[in-house]
Amino acid sequence: MNLASLRTVLTEAAPTSTVWIDADRGDENADHEVRLRWQTLADRLRELGAPDADVEALGAAATAPTGLPDPSSRVLAARAGRVVLDEVVGDTPPDGIGDVAFEAVPDVTPLLTLRPRSASFVVARIDRVGADVDVFSGPAIPVDEASVKGRTKHIHKFGGGGWAHLRFQHNTEEAWRKNAEDVAQLIDAKAKEHDVSLLVLGGDQRARTFVVEALPGDYEIVEVEGNVRAEGASEDQLDAAVTTAVAARVTGQAQAVVERLRAAREPAHDGTETGTAAIDLERTVAAFQQGQVSVLLLDPAALRARRLVVGPGPHDLALPGGPRTWDGDGVDLPADLALVRAAVLTDADVQVLPGGDADVPDGAAALLRWGDGEVSPAALRDGAPLP
After folding, report:
1. pLDDT digits (tens, 9 = 90+) for 43-72
2. Do strands 317-318 and 307-310 pair parallel, antiparallel, or not at all (unpaired)?
């Protein structure tokens, strides 16, 4: 998961008020309902010690329309009376209201959980003439749309016989293929423009086949049968396909990282330990201190009650009472937020895992950039150790 956009708000450790609010406005009393949710969350923030300036700044943003369809929620953070984080995600809090925090960095846990479910994708409704192409950032958040219409002459097959029949059939196939190439070019252009790798293609089987053949081979493609481009056509099949594909992608990404962790823990062929994984919180903290972490595996709920100490630099992270990489005071943080901050500041990836994952029983583990028995790349010059 790419969290580089959070670098600015996580760099400084200073009192920060965070709110995650259900932004749904589905019924006729939507504005009133959102204000009631906000009032509940504002009271919780004040109980935690959040300053009035933060609460006031957050209130104006939290009750404003998102401009996006339901379901949606908003993650906001304020520091010194100024909103420093405002992100809308395509899902809602479990309780229908939201959550709050007052810590030295924003509580970005909802973003860790919901961003993967809000992965961007392209939906193309295809027929033999052209297609309607929509780009989504999350299940209900359209961000771009386009259409393409190709040749209509000879688009329907001729029912006669003889030489004229064969020529007409050939012309029809060529028209379908040319239209499919135009559709594929549009899909590919929109996918590249929005950095999308998941495509959901709906339409009859022949039209989809021609489009798939014309697309580059580096996309994850889900196909849906049916005349989904016809006026009044049901969206149920497409919606179900999108939901299934996104869920499968999230599960598959997490499983792939866990498999890498298992492999990194395995002994090498000569029986020695590879040393390319940190398997608990203590070892993960030590790996961050050395700049070794490539991927952080995290169970936020398992770590929220535990604390870590952070310093001013990207590698400055320590267990309470443990060795530090900096001089002076540190800032006490929930362990999950401290680890996420370290990951963002050291350009490590973050993979959130479901609670109780047997491969990460301590709530944190890491894949390392280099093993404990290897020389740090930072200590090399032209492949040789520094003098």
Report:
1. 999 999 999 999 999 999 999 988 777 788
2. antiparallel
